[in-house]
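Quick review question:
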């Protein structure tokens, strides 16, 4: 079962459709199917890393790239009043798909602490 593709890998491989906002050689950005804000994007590495805690030093450049892409799409897709970046790690943190992804949320007021 561990070798089964996640829904994100299936979208990356074009086995199932996804609402793609951006794509490059390292990642893909999708609109979340269950948005928690008017803008809710997912920045997903094409390399299937299950979660942040399972990344390693060799993933540092890729992890930085994901944040740079999050910054880029937030600038293009939000109203400029601010955005939030979230990475869930593990079931207690709200992770539902075991494929690292960065949530970009915007165009609404957010409270602190989250959750």
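Suggested answer, residue by residue:
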């Amino acid at each position: 079962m561990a070798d089964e593709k996640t829904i994100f890998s299936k979208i990356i491989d074009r086995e199932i459709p996804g609402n793609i906002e951006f794509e490059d050689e390292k990642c893909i950005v999708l609109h979340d199917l269950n948005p928690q804000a008017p803008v809710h994007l997912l920045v997903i590495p094409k390399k299937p890393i299950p979660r942040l805690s399972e990344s390693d030093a060799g993933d540092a450049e890729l992890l930085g790239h994901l944040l740079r892409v999050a910054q880029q799409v937030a600038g293009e897709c939000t109203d400029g009043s601010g955005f939030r970046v979230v990475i869930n790690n593990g079931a207690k943190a709200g992770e539902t798909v075991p494929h690292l992804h960065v949530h970009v949320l915007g165009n609404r007021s957010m409270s602190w602490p989250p959750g």
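Why it works: The mean pLDDT is 95. Residues 88 and 95 are 5 Å apart (CA to CA).
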